[in-house]
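Appendix B. Extra example for self-study. Work through it before the problem class; the solution is given directly after the inputs so you can check yourself.
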Amino acid sequence: MSLLQEPFADGASIAHRLDPRGRVLAAGAFAVLMAAARTYAAVIAGLALALILLALARLPWKKVGARLLVVNGFIVFLWFVLPLTYPGEEVFRLGPLAVSRQGLLSTGLITLKSNAMMIALIALIATQPVNTLGEALQQLRLPGKLCHLLLFTYRYLHVFEQEFQRLVQALKIRGFRAGTNLHTYRTYANLAAMLLVHSFDRADRVYRAMLCRGFKGKFYSLRTFSWQARDLVFGLLSLLALAGLLYLEWRDAGSL
Amino acid sequence: MHISEGVLSPAVLAGGAGLAVLGTAIGLKKMDYEAIPRVAILSAAFFVASLIRVPVGPVGLHLVLNGLLGLLLGWAAVPAILIALVLQALLFQFGGLTVLGVNTVIMAAPAVFCFYAYRPLLRRPGKPAAVGAFACGASAILLSGLLAAGALITTGEAFLQVAELALAAHIPVMIIEGIITLFIFRFIKKVRPEMLEGMYE
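Solution. Structure tokens for the complete assembly:
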């Protein structure tokens, strides 16, 4: 089974059908605002907005939940450390360790923020295939070379993933079992090196094939994006929602 | 290795983004169109190689290989790593939009450092090259750990212990990366020495 699926990219929901450029811009603005937010009011409202977007994207809840659980690893680590080490007023003690009120509050805020941003990313950006995103970024005037790099890297990920699976299978057939020893490390290093060597050879062939087909430094796409009425509505609603978040932040923090 | 969204302060995020844009611009400038497929295909292979879980006692560690990537690609490693992080955010939801800059700096700055620091050592035959390859893999991770700790501490002094623990977690990775980088370097030198040519510029 491939490790490199895009589990959320396909769908016919409203979130999938919105113009990719609008979605990228909205997700970016939302993430910047959330990253800067310091108040619970703004962050909770942001989380609610992200959940609404997720509901609109009609993704399988189970898969989204499983993803979120995995990416919360760093947050869990913070919960083990930050409340105990954050300077501030003591709420209760765990043996010799004092749990600080400020520590709990700040870890809670980080948790909500982080999840709001990840959910928005899933709902708005992970709902488009990488190829579409590459084209959208190019239309948003990102450097052409960078977009080509994204499209190319993504194109070859799957090739090398299959190659990787084949090499792993070859190892298994020969009775290889991974353990904490130098033999394992050398074997894995050779496996990785083999992938790199193959990639080097392939790059040469690919470039020559591109030259044969008249490559002049630009990719042409048959897809055209069309900005429609629903994108305008989405854009206006996003602006309104972001303004609302800014208002909450300003009301509770006293400044921006 | 990744710092999650929502943890760092806006100032640190902005600083990281600025440095990442600068590094990416330099990297793209040094890349001509001929280099795009080479850089992309190599970084796809690196991305897949980082899916390998190397057992260390009871836990499995993922390879990072940013030292080796820097050695092979030089400044082009910066856009390559940026793209890899974008793909990780898209495919696995690791990292995110606002920490993209900081995470790129954490991974790519050591790569560029390794490109300049270890080339002389690696050009020599025998033992110096072996020592250089190990040091290249290990020091790239050490630097990444220091940069990540630095990003956390500049966010707030409350993160001091978090930063210390995060740095400590890098130590086993450092040793494994050193060993694996050494073996990969030997393999490439034996099988396809022309891959290391970029190193001799």
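Self-check: Chain B touches chain A through 72 residues (CB under 8 Å). If your reasoning did not lead you there, revisit section 3.
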